[in-house]
Amino acid sequence: MQLTFTLIHKEDLEDVISLFQAAADKISRMNIDHWQYWKNPPSEKIEWVKEGIQNKEYFFVQNENNETLGMVRILDQDLLYWGKQDEKARYIHSLLVKEEYNGKGIGIQIIKRIGRDAKAMDCKYLRLDADSTNPKLCRYYENQGFKQVGAKKLPISTYNLYEKALA
């Protein structure tokens, strides 16, 4: 499947929030307490999304028929979770695939695509975080070759920090 990353614009904010809400509903049905704040997002989360859109970090992920399969946020630095880092890396946030496309390897394709693009930009690592209360998600990233290199405690939860060297 050919994936296209389409830049998200400020007028797409409601669509982005809807994607987060749908993901939160699905996660809740799995009895996992992760992303539940997206059901009724607090203002700081809305501002966080708006900032990412303004910084041109959010992308819809679409197939060859221009159907939106999900979205992802890609950053050049992640001061909140990772602090200042010396090595050049790309940071993945808000990676989600719509429920009807789950289990088709789309998340893996998205990560691989970001990794290829990052390597072409001479990045040394691909980095992301995963809520430590979601062991299934943590295993998913570990199965993609990410290694846990730390943890970050924030008011909402503790997040495992993962990185993957780009060889």
TrEMBL record:
The keyword Transferase applies. Keywords: Transferase. Signal peptide: none annotated. Residues 3-167 form the N-acetyltransferase domain. PANTHER family: L-AMINO ACID N-ACETYLTRANSFERASE, L-AMINO ACID N-ACETYLTRANSFERASE AAAT. SUPFAM superfamilies: Acyl-CoA N-acyltransferases (Nat). Pfam families: Acetyltransf_1. One of its GO terms (molecular function) is acyltransferase activity, transferring groups other than amino-acyl groups. This is GNAT family N-acetyltransferase. It comes from the Bacteria. The keyword Transferase applies.
